[in-house]
Amino acid sequence: MMEEEEEEEEEAHAEAVARWQAGLAQLVRDPLLCDLPAQVTPEEICSQVALEYGQAMTVRVRRVDASEAPMPVVVVQSATVLELKKALRRFVQLRQERQGGVRHISWRHVWRTYSLTFGGEKLADDRKKLREYGIRNRDEVSFVKKLRQ
Known about the structure:
The chain is an alpha+beta fold. It has helices at residues 2-27, 42-52, 81-99, 107-113, and strands at residues 56-62, 71-76, 114-118, 121-122, 140-145. The longest helix is centred in the first third of the chain and has 26 residues, at 2-27.
């Protein structure tokens, strides 16, 4: 009896997941959301909508070696440096999951070794808002290696 109930629950769950994925697939066909990946998350949809309504901005983050195109990280207009760092972490995590290579990144090490900069100024205060540094939509910030003291 218990096995039958578990099987029914699994089938119901699988059906719900299939409906959810079908709904998401339909959503991302919308011209507003067409740039999103097929395995989009609800948070990515919300970010895209917030961008469209001017409630969020894209900050392009360039790696130290500049080997790749800058990473487009979406944050709310009133975001702090810490919120940008968290959004960057989430962006990298999602990209790694989608590429199939989930490897661990020590973000503690990253932030001990590198700083983010904009216009030659280090984004040193995590509580400071990005706009206080003059960062606006589509601006580019870069990683720079910290110097040893």
